[in-house]
Amino acid sequence: MAKQAASKTRGVRGSRTGRPIMALLDLLGRRWSLRILWELRDEPLTSRVLRTACDEASPTVLQARLTELREAGFVELGDGGGYGLTALGRELCETFMPLYRFAERWKR
Amino acid sequence: MAKQAASKTRGVRGSRTGRPIMALLDLLGRRWSLRILWELRDEPLTSRVLRTACDEASPTVLQARLTELREAGFVELGDGGGYGLTALGRELCETFMPLYRFAERWKR
DNA sequence: CGTATTGCTACGATAATTGTAGCAACGGAG
DNA sequence: CTCCGTTGCTACAATTATCGTAGCAATACG
Fold this sequence. Notes:
- 2 copies of one chain form a homodimer.
- Chain A has a two-stranded antiparallel sheet.
- Chain A has 6 helices and 2 strands, in the order H-H-H-H-E-E-H-H.
- By secondary structure, chain A is mainly alpha-helical.
- The first copy, chain A, has helices at about 20-30, 35-40, 45-55, 60-70, 85-95, 100-105, and strands spanning about 75, 85.
- The two termini of chain A are about 35 Å apart.
- Chain A has a single domain (about 30-105), classed as Winged helix-like DNA-binding domain superfamily/Winged helix DNA-binding domain (Arc Repressor Mutant, subunit A).
- At the A-B interface, helix 1, helix 2, helix 3, helix 5 and helix 6 of A face helix 1, helix 2, helix 3, helix 5 and helix 6 of B.
- Chain B binds a DNA duplex through helix 4.
């Protein structure tokens, strides 16, 4: 294979040049992020119910993810209590909903 | 709401539910998993080039993810060297490719 | 008042990730 | 052959992230 030093000119594919996709992959790549969005896909859940749905994950990291997802605009805390997806969050959830069927065929 | 059965033998990593979607979300929820798949979407890359593309991530965890993704059947090591997506991996990559357009509109 | 929710936090213990350095194997040039 | 550069891959200590348990203030209802 040829030398790769010259590839700097095109800006190596995927360097974190602030490209939104990288920030998104990083956020979704944190533990419980995908799972939280997945569990909220149908209806809002209270923090405790969400915790139960997420296999009794530690509330520490769950709160951290919820805060991050809220700051990202994907999740919101309803005035009556309970976490739910925003319109943007629902949209995001739809984009990886096909994963379910893929996983079923995957089976591992 | 009633009490729920609190402890079974708990795996270290979450999602022992047996549901494929949970195992998949858990695997993709590990650091650099999504990124690796993303960087390999076009063409196979050698380990070092992949590392550069992944923002100089530590080779330790990169190797770990590559091993996991290979065991999952998403990534393979070509006989000429270089990591590439399997047919299954390409299929998986396609399912969350819409994330790119979503991220562009998201901007944060 | 007591009791039960809600969202949220503290904190020690444990697991995951980082950063740096380096290995054996293979191949091309000299 | 040796020398050099590449490949995939690993060791190791240091740093983060996550876990697990306990508990907080605020709210609501009887």
